[in-house]
From TrEMBL:
Keywords: Hydrolase, Protease, Serine protease. The lineage of its organism: Bacteria, Pseudomonadati, Bacteroidota, Flavobacteriia, Flavobacteriales. Residues 323-527 form the Tail specific protease domain. It is an enzyme of class 3 (hydrolase). Its EC number is 3.4.21.102. It comes from Dokdonia ponticola. One of its GO terms (molecular function) is serine-type endopeptidase activity. InterPro entries: ClpP/crotonase-like_dom_sf, Peptidase_S41A, Tail-specific_protease, Tail_Prtase_C, TSP_N. This is Carboxy terminal-processing peptidase. SUPFAM superfamilies: ClpP/crotonase.
Amino acid sequence: MNTITSLFFTFSLCYSTSAVSQSFCNQWKLVQETVATHHYNPKAVDDAMSEAVFDLVIEAINDKGLHFIKSDFDVFDKDKLQLDNYLLDSDCSFLEKYVTTFEKRIQESKDIISDLSSATLTYKGEDTLHFSRDRSDRYFNSLESKKRYWRKTIKYKTLSKYLSEVPKEKQQETTFLAEEKTYRAQAIESALCQLDEILTVKNGVQRQFENRILDAYVKYQDPHSSFLDTQDKNEYESELATSQISTGVQTFKNKEGAIEVSYITPGSSAFKNREITEGDIITSVTIQDTTIDLSCFSNNELQRQLQDASVDEVVFNIRKDDGVLAQITLVKSKIEVEENNLTGFVITGEKRIGFISIPSFYTDYESPNGLGMANDVARELYKLQKLNIDALIIDVRNNGGGSMKEAIDLSGLFIDRGPVAILKNQAGETTTLRDSNRGVAFTKPIAILVNEYSASASEFFSAAMQDYNRALIIGATTYGKSSAQGIIPLNEEDEESDFVKLTSKTFYRATGKSHQAQGVIPDITLPSIYKDIASNEASEKFTLANDTAVVKLKARPLPLITKEQLIQNSIARVNTNTIFKTIIENNKKLAISLDEEDHIPITFTAIKEYLKAREDLWDSFSNMSSKNNMLTIENTRTTTEINGYDATAKKANERLLKNMSTDPYIIEAAYILKDYLKN
């Protein structure tokens, strides 16, 4: 860029920023007013707000300290306690320095990376990688430290590309050094592509900063509220448009520029697989033996590839919320909107135990009766009872929630009228949610499997069943989200209006107590790979406090379930179970791998060993299934008939039966119910 062009570009940018600052301030005011009107517990516009929003914006835009220099923060920090004043005074001119500085630093990083193309790089251990779970640095101390960072990063990515693409038996240091420049060029291209995308995504840097501030202001109210611009809204709408033949994985480009799983289509292979869940980050996909790195890949292009009619199977490489990596293979299948999206099974033996897994509390908003998950459960329950089951396991592990109506309806299948929860709004007014239907669909013993990722509606249901003494809750303490959100346009008269998703109500157990930030505590606890590792509601910033609600209609629970002997029997089995011992050991390994700070020299051998250790750790997680204590599981007659004419469904069913029959949690839940039936 020559000097004249550069001056013109800078002048144009400054003029543009100044020209739109008032418009942005007006929008920020509108967001503030909408939050004040509709949020359950709106917070004051004061210095606390200013500091929180400032930190959230910097954390989001600065990508863990990868862009700015210390001198930038000497300027930025002056705004830390001024954002509230800027909002109240409608003065948003402060944005200009952030936009111009950020663009300067991104271009600076691009120049540094580009220069590495012709640099002489060696891999003798003179550079060391520092891996830390929580990087506290907000900036580089100097330009030189930034250059060192990018040099080490490109060297690591170059080695990683070679080691991930070359078969293990052919990996040699001499071969790598001979081909190093080829892999380095790929690493540099990928890094430059990601930086270019930062500059162009969401209509440029100016709009990114505006959206970050608005989103931070809303997230300051609570972690489940957010700002959605019209582009976000359109992306969310397009996610729900699924092809007839699909894996069922819908994605969007999140605010960090990563491809994130946003929706799992009920009835799809992903829905039935359950290993891939909403919120997972997809790092790459393998389609027809070609691995596609998604670090610089558009969401539209990914969906186009996934929906290609010639593609039958997709391998997803994902990163879970806790940092664990996984590789999941999904076979595309036909999705019928009208079909039952759940499948019931029977665990055979002296006692026959039904099993239904519920990945989400989906509903059909277009149906006149709003039929969804609860209706599907009722249909499967009918089939299972015809097979003379003695008890039932309902699996809501990794179920992030969904429709509250479905949670009420599902509870109503197992209790005979009465309150199931209490809703409270901003004004403190309460509404009792109740099952108004007489009778129950199933009267025999029930066990509900939960874990740290069971949240919201699945917690609502589990808590209701626990309060009514209707089921044994088995597993790990749940996530702890006891709030409900709604999407509200900033301007109802404008079709192009931006939106905010706001927490408008909190819900409570029928007892008036809340599981907010505490979770539903199981009656019988089982070891978990995520113990003390998984993020939960209590670990989120600005989470709502736990409180209580006044009970206006008392529940009439069944007699207490005698649990002491069931707990002791379960503890005895778990203590001698090799799979649960492995789970406990792997939990400790995972905790260490996440918490310890690794300092690894950038050499061929050291990086190879580091990547192999990560791969081995994941392999140990994925192989935690029982080999000697398998269950025998039968399909219902309907599933058997479908398998008879649908080869794809049969293959998926065989894989599912194998996974369930060796799942230690399902096995232990079955043992617990068998003990209960003996009483």
